[in-house]
Amino acid sequence: MAETAESTLSTLGDMVARLRARGDHEAVVEIRDGACHPITSADLAGRIYAVAAALRRDGLEAGEVVGVCGPPSANWIAAALGIIVAGGVWLSIDEQPTYPLSELLADAGCRQVFTTADLAERFAFLAERGGRTRDLDDPTDGIGMADAAGLPALDPSAPAVIYFTSGTTGKPKGFHLTHRNLVASITMVEATGLATARDRALVPLPLHHVYASITGTITGLTCGTTIILPEALTGPGIREAFQAANPTMLVAVPRLYETLTEGILGRVLHGGLLTRLTMGNAMKLSMWTRRRFGWRLGRVLMAPVRRRLGPSLKVMVSGGAHLREETFYALEALGFTVLSGWGLSETSSVFSVNQIGARKDGSAGRPLGDGEVRITQPNEDGIGEIEVRGSVVTSGYLNNEQANRDSFTEDGWFKTGDRGIVDPDGFIFIRGRLKELIILSGGENVNPEMVETAYLESERIEEIGVLEYDGQLVALVRPNRESLRGDGSSQLRVAMRVALTEIGRTLASHHRLAGFELTDEPLPRTRLGKLQRFKLPERYAAAKARGGVSEEGGAGLTGKDFGDPESAKAFALVRARFPDRRLERDTSLFVDLGMDSFDWMNLVVEAEDGLGIAIDSERMHEVDTIDDFITLCTTSPNAAAKGKASGRYDAERWTRPLGPFGRFFNRFFITLNRWFWRWWLRLSVEGAENLPSGAATITPNHVSDIDAFVTSAALPPSVARRAAWAGTPSRLFNSAVMRGFSRLARIFPVEDRRPDEAVANARRVLDRGDVQLWYPEGWRSPDGTLMDFSTGIGRLIIETGTVVVPAHIDGTFAAMPRGRRWPRRVRTTVRFGQPVTGRDLLGREPEKGDEQAIADALKARVAALVPDGTESG
Questions:
Q1: pLDDT tens digit sequence for 433-469
Q2: Are the beta carbons of 22 and 220 closer than 8 angstroms?
Q3: Which among 94, 168, 293, 420 counts the fewest CB atoms within 10 Å?
Q4: What is the spatial distance between Cα 799 and Cα 836, in angstroms, rounded to a whole number?
Q5: Is the pLDDT of residue 838 over 50?
Q6: Where are any strands of DSSP class E within 551-613?
Q7: Where are the alpha helices (H) located in 310-354, listed in sequence order?
Q8: Closest residue by Cα to residue 630 from 603, 653, 657, 648
Q9: Closest to 11 in 3D by CA, of 89, 123, 124
């Protein structure tokens, strides 16, 4: 059937009539088993009318509330619109509710629900109330197809749908949207020309939310746009929909766009050499020119990348939450047109939107239709609460007069709770939520979303939720395990502190975190990706109490869960170390259980001794979770049959005495190094008389990449020539030149997860009567303050009985902090304390198990060398 002239809408009944008039035009495409299953406009309208007929047959009363709960499908749409055209009120229900369904349905006055067989049990309570469930897989109840005959005339002012707020701050609040509200929203978007009958819109969202159902689906159907529904709302399901249905438009939320961008950029910027040289550099150029000049070079330069995602995809529409600036520019640099909008559920989803030819970067667009906006109680920057009014705004909340008083002004404006500004051209810029504003004990106002955006610049952070806890600004952080694993360190809490402090140094003082806790669980969010901040304090306290481990209580994994005895034995080694912790196969030994490098090595030794295996040290870096450890143990060869696997680096080679040429170079380097740093940093040395003439271990603090050079320059030449150092292989041994330099400079390689090599090499140095330089913090301090000392130094003291000289470097952090390529001229001092032994530190002879106590006592000795009691680096 040919498409007829578009009729004027006054109710959603008119919208369904328009749909029916489009005949064979594709209305919806469902993706099932990787294939497209189209439903024509006439077919969908027929289903809608059949649902309405079935409801009327069963005695549906005017204004009666009927719910819909299930995965996205054409039947879902038919059930929702069928309720409305039958004269009822459609209640939109989340498949994964965060609040008891019985209470929400009671608030709405709902006694009937369309749902699937899998979800029907959740609504068993309806029978007790004289209600029922209806089959969402066959919402027409056998009628099949019908027309509008016998259906009632609809009142534009009557309620059409009930939604509940997403519950980001507690119990969701229900509210009506009338036919007039919805028609206003639909026609305002239609007037922009954004969606047409030539478009195919992929909507990978749960349809219970107003943005997905009204803006993404019903508005699209009204405009003649074909709606594509993926089989599953997962990464693979969405990719399948792209490949099968070839959409021209994507309607999604910021969280999905962030995930999409990360995946694309990860492949482009971190792929093979050829990819990095071609597409990687093209992406960087496109990004720079888009930000700097507004040019859209990505349309040409990044065409190959876009073709792999979706060859016809041109426009990305973002709503439901604020789209981060870096995500916006990344998508634009790829050549897509990104149109972000703003609105709340209570404003029928869309209130303002950027349009092609009328948009501003970073804005939420201008109000549509008769929408008006004003800013109340603006601060000195013009930022205040955004209040709106217009035909898309709800008339109020259900059974909640207090919420109505709180949300509506006496003169009829709706208080959105969002903070922002409106520029002279009428574009709205969102600056966070008023209710989410954190007021610290000093009176400072903190927008947590802005702080989170800043900290998410670090690749080591997967998610972060900022909150106030005990009067301080803190955060619950989910680490990016892949990024941290790539750093080559098992000291993951230290790595996170470094990452957070590096970002914090760029922020205003009241935006810097005073503390953080780690979690391996995704942060609590709504189905559309909004952070549920009211849940963060409880999550933070729980993570703090259990050291960042996410657990529900109970024993978790046990030896009986393994089918073979060798796996059970390997698991028993972990269980013995953590008898009171809940353990699962995917529990991280490092993030979740807090193991450091020496804990890890002890576990490896126990596995080799207890299981009679030889673990290849080359494979140790593959291990993160308990399951990884068990796999390592069960696939390692028998020790008796094959012997111990050798490490990558020959420790003896790197620590043996230098030959004549090596000694000459070493003396030359020490002389040049000593002269340069004493001149450039005006280096002064205190306590050099405390350095013993024989074997000793010097333990400076670590704040900069130049610490080793400066410490060497502070040593008397006779001591410097006898000094040996440990270095990270990935930084100092990754080329022939660097390996040669390291050998002549007496630097030996130590991998982070093979700390036994560090102790063994240090023992060789000390046994020859030489001096070992050891940085007990492991990591460079991100802010110049003294970090915790690891247990490695305690183990070294216990096993060798070495004399230790505590040392403190003051000035190198200011001279060359992280990220700086050349040191500033800053006066620097190196102080050497009195030499001590393990007995001096503990007041008794140290023994195995005292590693941490020794490390803590030594840290106190180093801290005591700071002249004014502060730590500056």
A1: 877 777 775 566 788 888 888 898 888 888 999 988 8
A2: no
A3: 293
A4: 15
A5: yes
A6: none
A7: 325-333
A8: 603
A9: 89
